[in-house]
């Protein structure tokens, strides 16, 4: 049955029904929400690529200007946010800049896709379109058009409420990440904490593991409800992964680099979005400890929010489009080099538009193996939210993750900064698309400069790292799966 979005948010909504052969696609197009400059200013995701971050800064500073127009100005300003913002301010003194389109536009479902995916999946009919947002509600549509599956009403209602209350209480201890973006220190636009099983694992997480090149300070011990629910998430995610392999992947076989082993979560990131403006910018999750073709189970509680996804578009050119390299270089390089590398600004970033998956209370979203390498995701800021009876304006999100033993920090290549390198996948540059690399990321830590360490990362077909030098086996513990053997039944 068609689910209809709340109109309480005041958004201008229009429902589009379009027949497509044997199936009916359902989605809604609506105006992009506007951000308040004060709420989002200087708060961005640490793993956003450089162009996205720059655009996000400009969008937060000039919420009334269309993204395309901002991108043009950014390009003509040589990729400099400061210069672009000076241009807009100066232009405004004389003439109005192109505003975001008002009203609602219908989106055709008949666009033919010429995309081949890195995973070798058959190209799907492309629904999204430049500058537009397609809204998906039904699990069938989500599975058919995104690299995700969604299960609504995942937990018994009382269990979902108990977990929500437990985590709302925990959220008093959450914090914002601080990281370096060019010459500024910025904060994440929501709060979070990482949960692991034992005090020893907390010690490791704060002194050996890094996140976006930074040691975490906010790590907490798994709570009773988080642990209990993880057993159900583990079962459901493994079932969904098997279904996905059988129904969507070529020859019904797992993808190259995807692990054939059971997915066993041993770390949980818990995020709190307090009010409509709290968000997370477009990013792919860091692969350092998850390895290639990572799978993530993401449980949403409290206020419903929009999870946006968009496919990463490949490019042939060198300039600015190898975002992995330019993002790294941008924090460590001189301003003049920075300008040069970001000049070929990524006008393709928005070329296919975005898809919005609505995440109601008590829904489990599985991000499948093709997600992190080929797509980006975000929690979009909203104009308003419909309050939840238990959490008010707050949304809690748990991403359950499987940190792989083989990718424990002691096994990972070290860069010249002394910390270990981070693992990324080449996402844009066609020539090397899909290759993995180890690189320094220390430049994202406030007050630190990174080094230029770079090494291609090699894995076998099952995603096990092939090290040039065998790591030393010191017998130190790795992270334990959240569920004990006897919970597994
Ligand atoms: O809040 C969400 O649903 C997504 C969070 C996320 O992308 C992340 O923690 O990496
Ligand atoms: Fe994420």
UniProtKB/TrEMBL annotation:
Residues 317-344 are annotated as: Disordered. SUPFAM superfamilies: Clavaminate synthase-like. Residues 50-93 form the CUE domain. Keywords: Metal-binding, Zinc, Zinc-finger. Residues 415-460 form the GRF-type domain. Signal peptide: none annotated. This is CUE domain protein.
């Amino acid at each position: 049955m068609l689910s209809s979005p709340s109109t309480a948010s005041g958004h201008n909504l229009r429902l589009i029904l379009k027949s497509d052969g044997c199936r009916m696609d359902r989605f809604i197009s609506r105006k992009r929400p506007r951000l308040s400059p004060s709420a989002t200013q200087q708060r961005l995701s640490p793993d956003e690529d450089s162009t996205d971050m720059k655009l996000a800064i400009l969008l937060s500073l000039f919420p009334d200007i269309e993204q395309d127009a901002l991108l043009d100005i950014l390009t003509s300003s040589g990729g400099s946010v400061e210069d672009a913002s000076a241009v807009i301010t100066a232009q405004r003194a004389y003439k109005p800049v192109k505003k975001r389109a008002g009203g609602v536009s219908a989106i055709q479902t008949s666009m033919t896709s010429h995309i081949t995916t890195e995973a070798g999946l058959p190209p799907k009919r492309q629904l999204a379109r430049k500058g537009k947002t397609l809204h998906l509600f039904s699990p069938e549509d989500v599975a058919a058009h995104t690299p995700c599956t969604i299960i609504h009403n995942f937990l018994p209602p009382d269990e979902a409420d108990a977990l929500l209350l437990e985590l709302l209480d925990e959220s008093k201890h959450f914090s914002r990440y601080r990281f370096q973006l060019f010459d500024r220190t910025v904060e994440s636009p929501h709060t979070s904490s990482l949960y692991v099983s034992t005090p020893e694992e907390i010690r490791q997480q704060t002194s050996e593991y890094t996140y976006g090149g930074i040691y975490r300070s906010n790590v907490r011990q798994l709570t009773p409800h988080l642990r209990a629910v993880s057993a159900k998430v583990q079962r459901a995610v493994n079932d969904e992964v098997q279904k996905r392999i059988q129904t969507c992947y070529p020859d019904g076989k797992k993808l190259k680099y995807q692990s054939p082993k059971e997915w066993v979560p041993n770390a949980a990131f818990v995020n709190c979005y307090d009010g409509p403006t709290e968000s997370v910018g477009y990013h792919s999750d860091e692969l350092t400890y998850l390895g290639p073709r990572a799978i993530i189970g993401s449980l949403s509680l409290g206020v419903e929010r929009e999870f946006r996804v968009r496919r990463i578009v490949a490019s042939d050119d060198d300039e600015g489009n190898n975002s992995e390299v330019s993002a790294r270089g941008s924090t460590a390089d001189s301003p003049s080099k920075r300008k040069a590398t970001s000049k070929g600004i990524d006008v393709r970033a928005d070329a296919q538009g975005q898809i919005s998956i609505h995440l109601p209370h008590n829904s489990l979203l599985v991000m499948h193996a093709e997600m992190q390498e080929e797509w980006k995701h975000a929690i979009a800021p909203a104009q308003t939210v419909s309050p939840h009876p238990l959490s008010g304006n707050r949304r809690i999100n748990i991403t359950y993750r499987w940190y792989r033993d083989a990718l424990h920090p002691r096994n990972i290549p070290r860069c010249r900064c002394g910390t270990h390198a981070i693992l990324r996948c080449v996402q844009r540059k066609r020539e090397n698309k899909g290759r993995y690399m180890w690189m320094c990321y220390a430049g994202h830590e406030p007050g630190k400069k990174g080094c230029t360490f770079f090494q291609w990362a090699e894995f076998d077909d099952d995603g096990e790292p092939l090290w040039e030098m065998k790591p030393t086996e010191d017998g130190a513990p790795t992270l334990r799966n959240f569920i004990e053997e006897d919970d597994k039944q």
